[in-house]
Amino acid sequence: MRGAALRSASDLCHTRRMNVERLKYVIWAADMQRAVDFYAKVFGGTVLKRNEIISEVGIAGGVIGIHGGGEGKRTWTGMSFQVRDVVAGAAEIVAAGGVLVREPQPEDGEAPHLAMCVDTEGNEIMLTRKRS
Length: 132
Description:
Number of strands: 8
Radius of gyration: 19 Å
Helix content: 25-40%
Number of helices: 3
């Protein structure tokens, strides 16, 4: 019976696709207000939803969900924000309470294209620049 159910679910996937309404990347925060303010200020985000459990910030067409209850420990997120000037962006992150863990460095005669950063809640993020 189980195999039959799996086959019919598989058949359904081939005939009809899931309707994804929105893609949201969720990170943790020990201090919700501080986290929302960080992403809204540094990245020019729009606060879409705010409460103690989960908040949402829209940035460049994407949505970051910020879930309360975080422990503030360093956590790799894989999030990358492409900006025009990585050096200036890194300075903005530090000014807003974030930490720079890898300074932007010139490479192959080009301006820096990568900065490794940590937000106010311990979430590791990257700043990148479109390369020539």
